[in-house]
Amino acid sequence: GIQVEQSPPDLILQEGANSTLRCNFSDSVNNLQWFHQNPWGQLINLFYIPSGTKQNGRLSATTVATERYSLLYISSSQTTDSGVYFCAVVNNAGNMLTFGGGTRLMVKP
Amino acid sequence: EAQVTQNPRYLITVTGKKLTVTCSQNMNHEYMSWYRQDPGLGLRQIYYSMNVEVTDKGDVPEGYKVSRKEKRNFPLILESPSPNQTSLYFCASSLRVVSYEQYFGPGTRLTVT
Question: A37-73, pLDDT tens digit by residue?
Fold first, then answer.
């Protein structure tokens, strides 16, 4: 099956810093989403981004499907950004969603 | 409000006692699926359903059953739970699996003793 790798696995930032999270996938994909899992365990949709670039406030994402990677940018980080960030892709058969291992982010005040 | 709901949110049970975790969505989505999340292993797909009466195994289906008799509901059944099924479970839905974003329920934390 498709492999999804995220880096870095852990990240500690000072409040106000910027960061880039990466998601690599091993095959061409139909969908790609970024999620934030907050400290209470809830999965929150950030971006649906199979290709191109999107922005939502301090967050933006870029997917280069031909090169099989996606990037999530967090600017001016806040303590509320803490949690785990996951990317997930749908395989080419179009029936299953596979998650990466996540990046655990801690933003310190 | 468009949402995916799961019940119960928390459950502690004993080995071998059958249980069902319900999942319901109000968005008329065709695709629904179940995941488990374990430390160090991330989220893994248990079962999915492309539409009513159409279900299939994901990556880790052993010990679980599902049914899809109605479009809105997709219950997860553990016929004889074991301690290795202690996990955080998520239900998700999307209009179709391809080209549409997935919406996740709030999660069910299950402990099997």
Answer: 998 899 999 999 999 999 999 999 999 999 999 999 9
**Contact across the interface for A41 and B107, Cβ inside 8 Å:** yes
User: Are B43 and A95 in contact (CB < 8 Å)?
Assistant: no
Contact between B56 and A45 using a beta-carbon 8 Å cutoff: no
Contact in structure between B88 and B109 (CB atoms under 8 Å): yes
**pLDDT tens for residues B52-109?**
999 999 999 999 999 999 999 999 999 999 999 999 999 999 998 776 888 999 999 9
**Strand-pair partners of A25:** A4
